[in-house]
Amino acid sequence: MARVTKKQKEALAKIDRNKLYSISEASSLVKEITNVKFDASVDLAVRLGVDPRKANQMVRGVVTLPHGTGKDVKVLALVTPDKEAEAQEAGADFVGLDDYLQKIKGGWTDVDVIITMPSVMGKLGPLGRILGPRGLMPNPKTGTVTMDVAKAVSEVKAGKIDFKVDKTGIVHAAIGKASFSPDKLEGNAAELLQTLIKLKPTAAKGTYIKSVYMSSTMSPSIAVDPKTV
């Protein structure tokens, strides 16, 4: 078993394990217990009362975090030449088509999001085995396959993230950085949770939001009371 460091012990001592914290309290506490030298990511893990193996209970969507993610998101726009200038002006980090398809074929995936157009999707199909496992495959449902490339690029740069429930029924999403103010973390967390509530499948029975935990990189997790959403 991994040894608990002095800093981790101090962090654990600040959390009352028998308490469900409000989003506001958790947003302040997560900053207190983050003891790393870099600007840690703050994450939310939401356990849903769904069976993700059933298509009618799959929860997937996008949310624009009001205060952004705090992360410099690297965007690749795989577009035809007539759309290149539009993608560049919107802030895409990499813009092109065949050259980048070749690079990906060779194993290059040094980006966070890929945005493309419907006409290019056929070329991306064979690269699914490389892009799929890394969560980089563009999808019309998340707005990353679109003719409005500029809008898609600027939204991703501004803090739009996509999420989906994993096979254990949990949605994991980064909602900011430890350097954010508690208000910003609270605002982003609330936006994500409200979006999840709107996406509740009609086939889901019983308690929908079973548990919510907030944590930062290497910090213990804080149990959040879903009723405070």
TrEMBL record:
<comment type="similarity">
    <text>Belongs to the universal ribosomal protein uL1 family.</text>
</comment>
<keyword id="KW-0694">RNA-binding</keyword>
<keyword id="KW-0678">Repressor</keyword>
<comment type="function">
    <text>Binds directly to 23S rRNA. The L1 stalk is quite mobile in the ribosome, and is involved in E site tRNA release.</text>
</comment>
<dbReference type="GO" id="GO:0019843">
    <property type="term" value="F:rRNA binding"/>
</dbReference>
<dbReference type="GO" id="GO:0003735">
    <property type="term" value="F:structural constituent of ribosome"/>
</dbReference>
<dbReference type="GO" id="GO:0015934">
    <property type="term" value="C:large ribosomal subunit"/>
</dbReference>
<dbReference type="InterPro" id="IPR023673">
    <property type="entry name" value="Ribosomal_uL1_CS"/>
</dbReference>
<dbReference type="InterPro" id="IPR023674">
    <property type="entry name" value="Ribosomal_uL1-like"/>
</dbReference>
<dbReference type="InterPro" id="IPR016095">
    <property type="entry name" value="Ribosomal_uL1_3-a/b-sand"/>
</dbReference>
<keyword id="KW-0689">Ribosomal protein</keyword>
<dbReference type="InterPro" id="IPR028364">
    <property type="entry name" value="Ribosomal_uL1/biogenesis"/>
</dbReference>
<protein>
    <recommendedName>
        <fullName>Large ribosomal subunit protein uL1</fullName>
    </recommendedName>
</protein>
<dbReference type="InterPro" id="IPR005878">
    <property type="entry name" value="Ribosom_uL1_bac-type"/>
</dbReference>
<keyword id="KW-0687">Ribonucleoprotein</keyword>
<dbReference type="GO" id="GO:0006417">
    <property type="term" value="P:regulation of translation"/>
</dbReference>
<keyword id="KW-0820">tRNA-binding</keyword>
<dbReference type="InterPro" id="IPR002143">
    <property type="entry name" value="Ribosomal_uL1"/>
</dbReference>
<dbReference type="GO" id="GO:0006412">
    <property type="term" value="P:translation"/>
</dbReference>
<comment type="function">
    <text>Protein L1 is also a translational repressor protein, it controls the translation of the L11 operon by binding to its mRNA.</text>
</comment>
<keyword id="KW-0699">rRNA-binding</keyword>
<comment type="subunit">
    <text>Part of the 50S ribosomal subunit.</text>
</comment>
<dbReference type="GO" id="GO:0000049">
    <property type="term" value="F:tRNA binding"/>
</dbReference>
<dbReference type="Pfam" id="PF00687">
    <property type="entry name" value="Ribosomal_L1"/>
</dbReference>
<keyword id="KW-0810">Translation regulation</keyword>
